[in-house]
Every structure is written in structure tokens, then in C-alpha cells.
Amino acid sequence: xxxxxxxxxxLISSMLLSMGTGCSKKSADSPSVExxxxxxSGNAIYELVSAxxxxxxxxxxxxxxxxSEFALGMIRRGAAGAGNDNFMVSTDSALFALEMTAAxxxxxxxxxxxxxxxxxxxxxxALLFAVDRMAQIxxxxxxxxxxxxINDKSKGAFYDGYLKYVEKNFDAxxxxxxFNDSGVDKINSWVSDKTxxxxxxxxxxxxxxxxxxxxxxLSFEAKWKKPFEAEDVKEGTFYRGDGQxxxxxxxxxxxxxxxxYNDKATGFxxxxxxxxxxxxxxxxxxxxxxxxxxxxxxxxxxTSYEDDEDEYLNVDINVxxxxxxxxxYRSFWGSRGNGDHVEFKFPEFTSEYETxxxxxxxxxxxxxxxxDETANFGNMSNLTGLCIxxxxxxxxxxxxxxxxxxxxxxxxxxxxxGVIQNRKVICDRPxxxxxxxxxxxxxxxxGTVEHVN
Length: 453
Fold this sequence. Notes:
By secondary structure, the protein is of the alpha+beta class. It is built from eleven helices and 16 strands.
């Protein structure tokens, strides 16, 4: 018997489930597909979440710290496997897709999934965090969409309570479609529409044994609060990590950004219109003196970087990010507000990325969900042997003088079977970046630039 598989990818989360047995029915207040009723026990995670009092909720600080541990854990492992390529993930898209999946899990599978996504937080708070996070970060600039696509031959295989929970709390569109080429086109068209055309062809094929595709899509578009004028866009040389050079346009400025630093890097953040989000740059650099001024990094190079003895000038940006901890990230963001004057430049660039999160999640402790012998999705369906096979992540970003566009998709598929200083941050060599929400500083998107062309 074929194992059941679950695939997750960033921007669209698809869950494919196999056919099951049993009677199906549809009630007046059920989702718009045939479902089966699960006898209420009060113990399903989505039932426990609904019953939890706001007074019992963990502190925002504890929740944000827990999420940052997952986010940086995923980022570190992803960067470690990126080689010399540009790297980019949306940990929020992964969170939303996987928490929609976790809402149907039970037992040790549920414990491992939520323990990976929100370590150290009780299960109810862990599941609630994704819903609260969506409400906190979404806006006209950041669109979030979720959907569930059920194989029209298996409409009666899923529990009414689970689908209603996801429909209500994740605002998920639920529908039944044929799982053939026309179904692939329908899902990919939905993803393209929800990402303004930035993510194409996420789903390559749907098999007959695939029963559900669960999708999350993020789409970000914002203009800079302080735009770049024509004279601020200057051609220059970008020094790649592999020693090659590229000619590109740089966005240059003198002020209007916030300086950031810790004992491993310097950088800045530049806010978008509305000041709800910011673009953050992280440039590896060895700290020198109390203000972490890095003279060798602040001056534009007059010689080849290969000849420079400073170890950070030849650092592999993906290796650097692979060593970044959640505490490193929090200390970097926590340094803002020191009033320093910053001269900066960074390149215009477009980057897209696709990867599997399977090995990352396994390494982070989400093991039971990937085995048909141990996975337990008994609060989602009456089908046995459902498990995650892969988690596929797709992202794209465009940064230019006007602002930034970015998108991500995650697919989960189941198959049956103080002192003012003058600073310079010159990003003419590999650097890391993030689009963050200003309230928490947590990354919505995080990536690296190894090359610009």
C-alpha cells in the first residue's frame, strides 16, 4: 500500500490526502464540500484552542521569542544548503501552512509539529500564534491568502470540525476540484493571482491518490517612505562571494535609515510607506572599538577584495547566516534607535528561490509527521497512514528605487498511502536582508544576495 504523503511549499501549502471510506454528508453550516462528522471529544487541538481563555495566554514576549527560534532555525538550515546561490524564505508562509496542517494532527505528531514551530509554548498558544500573527502583519501592502483544494472524488474523507476551524480562523477558501491537469491549472492560477503573478507553476502534477491541497500565499508590495531620486541610483561594482565582479545599479543614500549592529555584523533598516514594515540589511563585519566601526568595510574598495586581509571581506554570506542564532538576530534588531547618521548603498536586485523544507523540518524534530507508521492526522480525516512526504517552498523578490515586491508560497501535500556617529554601510559584496514588521522585528521574508545578475 502506498504511503500517504504531505508536501508543503512556501506561498502555497498543499496537502494531498488519499481516498477514505465511510459515509459523507454536508450540514447547513459546514464548508462548501461534503464532509464527515467527528464525534466531539473536546480534545482535538482546534477544540482546545476555541475553549482557551485570553487570560491564560502566554506573554507576547515569550511567543515572539519562541517563533524567532523556529524562524532562525529554518533560516540557518536553509542557508547552509544554499551553496553559492541567492537564498530566500518566508518563515511566516511556512508557519501558516504547517499550522493549518497541525490543526488536524494529534498525539506525538501534534506535539512535534507545534514543538518545532513554537518551541517551549503550550499547544493551544502555539496554534493560536499563527492566527494572531496573520492578523498582526497583514495590510494593504501584505496580502495573505489560504485555500484548501479537495479531490472531488474524495469529498467525504475530511472532518467537518477541522475544515470549519481552518475556514474560520485562517480565512481559507475550500472547494473540490478534479485532480488532473485542469486541477493543477486551477491551483496554480489561484497562486499566481494571489501573488500578483510572482509565483508560477508551484504544483507540477496531481495524482489520483492525492486528495487535498492546502495552500498559503503571501504577497508583499510597498514603496519606500523616502524614495530614491534618479541621482541616487548609481552604477557600480558588486564583488561576489566567488571572487567575480558584476556591474549593477546601486541605491545610494545619506541618512533616512536606522543603523543596526551586533558583535558580528553591521547594517541598517529602511522603512516603507506607512512605517509598518522595513527592509533590513545585515552586512558581516568584525567589530572594532566601542561603536563597532569597521573601517575596512566603510570605505569603498580601491583594491580587489581578494587582496584584502580582513576575514569578513571574503566571508561566504550563506555560511555566515548558517551560523546566525535567534539571539544574534534579536540583538541586531534590538540595537536600533541609536541616532547614528548612516551613509549607505545596496544593489537593485531580483531573486527567486525554490527548495524543499523536508530535511530542515526533520532536523528540527518534526519526524513523526513524515512517516506513515508514526504520523497521526486523526483530527483531520478518518484515513489512516497519512503523513508528510515533502514541504516545497517558493519565493521571489524585486528590489528597486521605487520599493519592493515579494511573494512566497508553501505547499503541503498528503497522499493516501546612544552617541551620534557617522556610519557607512556599503553593500557592494554579499549581504543578508529581511523584510520585517516594525512592531516585533520578526522576519516576514529573509534572504541572502550572493550575486545580483
